[in-house]
């Protein structure tokens, strides 16, 4: 009796044949390979079939993984697109140039972008079309072409000129699921996705909105498979397939809550597949058709592209090449960072992993992870989780974690706890591992001259930009690092040092002193506010004044502190909103803040509607009202926004195909 292939196996077989045909149909080998990057957005590796997801069908990407190299420990280094892309384009951690705040442009050195080096080596470099590099320099100027029409098929590319081309699709972006409501979404069964049978991650509550958002994202993953196939076919059609190395990856982790924007693997771990045509695999001495477990980060991409192209790697680059003639041994440690959630929550974390154990250092631990990024909170899943918690229904400790103050140190065993739910930092059995990774993290921060400990508003005041200012004034970075490291673990014995820092000429050192006082107050270690701290609420630097005001709210001066915060908030100073929202997650402070409900209601009704930016202020005031139980989270966004969301649910987002 003959055996017939199942439909998924048949699709996989045909996809493999298509890739093989691409190779066999190629002509002579070039002197330099072409490099094509197919970049999707906001998608984790676990959302693809070749990475173990059985809920969807991605045959072309799966086939590419079988023929190429599938990386299982690839990281975007940052969980937001602009700092991640700033890392990728420079070959340096975005923190080294102060490019780590999402999304903000800063003065940076000029010659730090790798396409410039490829162009000098004769490459035709195109980008279609997203840049998102956190620099004031013209993002498009580093490319030969950068537009929605940019392509390796351009008439401006000379005959046989090697190309480096990037195609970005926004069709998988969080904007797809940022629809306020799930009303109007399709029946996902029509796309082969059974919403009731999805394997949901354990770090989030199993709610209908969670399943709907995940199904919508998986639908986009399936569609990205067709998008990838379109480029494979175009390369074959143009006779470019045998000379083109293909990189397929996401710009960071996925959209489900506690993914994008958060320092967990769900925000940092990405799919990465590299396909190398046989002739070039032989020439570059690269093995293909296997699973690669080495640590790879966005910081390594620029030197790798240069290595493949045979171009010298500049000394300033911090990454190491993982392919090509200049390939180096795998990095033993993978580093990551996050600095903020939108432009109101400055909340830096740093991560380091040896592949099995992962360490997270949270520098402002009194702020819970749940502080709203009001763009992300347009996702129904985020709103549903908040409602579940605020209602008091949730009893699952794992799901309550983001709604409590953070631990200043976290340690996870990724082999046994891949979703990072069991913090081992206080487990004596792992004290040596904790000590080792803590020291490696501190060493890395110093070796890379991490500038990510300057709050957002302070950076904008630096003449010629933060990067140059630090060098010009010979700023004491070591004192900054030690102050930030102390802030989240300070004890009463550190108060003399904190009071000394409060007198510093540098606002950023005064700032970290106030963060430490927030920690002492919020943990009930200090109940009476020192006079110097009370005085600091009038500091000339508003970020210092804001954090000092929040600190005394945890002590014996709540009314004085909150009056200052509300005044700053009414003047649309974003850090004041962050402090006020933080206070709502502390029961005693929330109770005291309730009597200010009429003020927040007045702001939410638009008392400042004649001032620029009042709409954002209204939204943030509503957010505080939600946490004070004054309005349901369904009232956070307007009816117009809900109607627009329903329309988006019905139409989805479109992919851009080869031109």
Automatic annotation (TrEMBL):
The keyword Signal applies. Pfam families: Sulfatase. GO terms for molecular function: arylsulfatase activity. InterPro entries: Alkaline_phosphatase_core_sf, ARM-like, ARM-type_fold, Sulfatase, Sulfatase_N. It comes from the Bacteria. Residues 33-311 form the Sulfatase N-terminal domain. Residues 1-25 form the signal peptide. Keywords: Hydrolase, Signal. PANTHER family: ARYLSULFATASE FAMILY MEMBER, ENDO-4-O-SULFATASE. Belongs to the sulfatase family. This is Sulfatase.
